[in-house]
Amino acid sequence: MPAVDALVCFALYAANRTTTQAYRVLLEPWKLTYPQYIALVTLWADGDQSVTSLGEALQLDSGTLSPMLARMESAGYLTRTRRSDDERVVTVALTARGREMREELAHIPRCIAAGAGLSDADSARELIDALHQLTEAMKDLRDHPQTVLASTGTPHASA
User: Fold this and answer.
1) pLDDT of residue 146
2) What is the pTM for the complete model shown?
C-alpha cells in the first residue's frame, strides 16, 4: 500500500477528485462542468443573486467565476445584468432554458448518492453533516494554527 493511502488528506483528495470525475461523466451530455452545475443548483434553490453572493456560495473567486458565468450566458442558461440603482452590482438570473435544466438534471444527485453507496436520505445527511464539521474544523486550523498546535503539544518554529 502506498504511504499516501494512510493519510486523511490524501483520502479526502482522492474522494473529491473521483467524485468530480463522476460528475464530469454524468454532466457531459449537457456539456456542463461541475462548477457550472453547482452554480445552476444554487440559482435553482436560491433564485437570482449578485455575482458576489454566488461566488461566496460556491467558494469561487471572481477570476474563476466571471469566465464561467460568461460561458453559461453564451450557452443560454443565465443572464447577467447590472442593477440600475448600483451599476457595480451584477445580478445573475436563470433563463427559461436554465430553469428547464433543473428537471433534466434531477437524476444527478440520485446517481451520485447511489454511486457513493448512500442508501437513503438519512445516510446522505450524516455524510453531509460530517463533511461540514470537517470543513469547519479545517477552517479553524487554517485561521488559528497556533491554537491547534498548542492543543496537540506540537512544538512549532518561532519567527
Assistant:
1) 87
2) 0.85
